[in-house]
Amino acid sequence: MATRKQYPLRIDPDIWDAVQRWANDEMRSSNSQIEWILRDALKRYGRLPKDSSKQTMK
């Protein structure tokens, strides 16, 4: 498993609640959901590094 960067996140409470509900709906942790959201956005905008394709999340 790849090493993960730890980063404290300051986030609006309403956004946090929405992320938690979404994560619960998909049976993921909030952390995994945030990573999925970020990865999806990076992929959509062509900013995902080429070597990160091995870390694809469903």
From TrEMBL:
GO molecular function terms noted in the UniProt entry: DNA binding
Residues of the Arc-like DNA binding domain: 2-48
Coiled coil: none
GO biological process, one term: regulation of DNA-templated transcription
Family matches, as InterPro entries: Arc_DNA-bd_dom, Arc_rbn_hlx_hlx, Ribbon_hlx_hlx
Protein's name in the database: Arc-like DNA binding domain-containing protein
